[in-house]
Amino acid sequence: xxxxxLDTSTSRANPTPVRGKRTTVPAIRARKVGFTTADPxxxxxxxxxxxxxxxxxHCDLLLVGDSLGQVIYGLPSTVPxxxxxxxxxxxxxxxxxxxxxxxxxxxxGSYEGSPAQAFASAARxxxxxxxxxxxxxxxxxxxxxxxFLSKRGVPVIGHVGLTPQAVxxxxxxxxxxxxxxxxxxxxxxxxxxxxxxxxxxxxxxVVETIAEELTDxxxxxxxxxxxxxxxxxxxxxxxxxxxxxxxxxxxxxxxDDLAARVTDAAATYAxxxxxxxxxxxxxxxxxxP
Length: 289
Prior knowledge:
alpha/beta, 12 strands, two-stranded antiparallel sheet
């Protein structure tokens, strides 16, 4: 871990970030020049200090997603996630990173009521976590809120297409933009979010041609998830990408199979414990001579 010094005065070391310049909102926005991003933006989710520490050197953005509701807490959707959950995990991710810009999702019910409600929630998130930006779902309906936040010092990432917080209204997690009317609505939403002041936008679960049209049409970076390789960047849920779950969405590439490796390690440990093969003298403390 060349990016961290470790305090070894305790048995479980506390990581202390090495001084460095964290990626900024203007730096992310500036990656897209003339509707083109030559250096794609790398974004992954993180919910804990240790995962942030491991991902940070490789990412431009770390997203503390409300997907933690399902990934960490075993909830059926993102809808039950609370502001307190997001603040606690957001603070942990900020403590575990030094390079990436950290953005925190605003959970369902914390911003939809009014721009004033959204500002109060965003201010709490930024104060309690130290993050640099918030992300919220919705298009034209949220444009006034995004404008309100942006003009008051809150950088905003938009989110259009498949919006998981609206799963009950959408009726599921299927791809969006298959009909002409739905495609036009997604494009209109994205333009409204960009015009309102969002510095980048996540396009989730949209038909590839729509994602490409968005990327070509918007001056701000478009970060795809289940979208297109032509987007200005990509984001995935880290636990999906690492293969920690048996089932992953169609748009996820599994870069490892950690579920199998964790299972094998736990089985080996259990066998050694039952055989009294662990601990060995290497893991115990002999009496002083």
